[in-house]
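SAMPLE LOG
Freezer: B-3
Tube label: C17
Construct: single chain, 120 aa
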Amino acid sequence: MEEDIQTNGQPVLPENMSEEERAEIACILARTDRPEIKREKRYPVDFRITFPMFGKKMFLAIIAGQEKRSPERRKIERQQLPLLTPGNLIVFFAMAVLFVVAVAAAGLFFAFFNGSLFVG
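STRUCTURE (predicted):
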């Protein structure tokens, strides 16, 4: 039955539908707030947080899990959502700096408490 309504993961719409009807259906299908998604279908790692920055509400989402997208879909999404954008590069750089600072702070902390910071 699902084959009747989908082709290659895309819904098949009647030919006699208006563009407005098609757009409305596309909006409904694209919605991300789907309460009917069961817990076992969610990602094993699903971290989402909203925080204020520069007077605006910003969000950070980290999700991880088994890849279930088709190679074709991954290729399309990689073209539409490239990794090397100015915003992504800024975030990657900031995360690298924070990582280096955290490692250096941890090294200094352990060196100080082990007494190896001061020779003598």
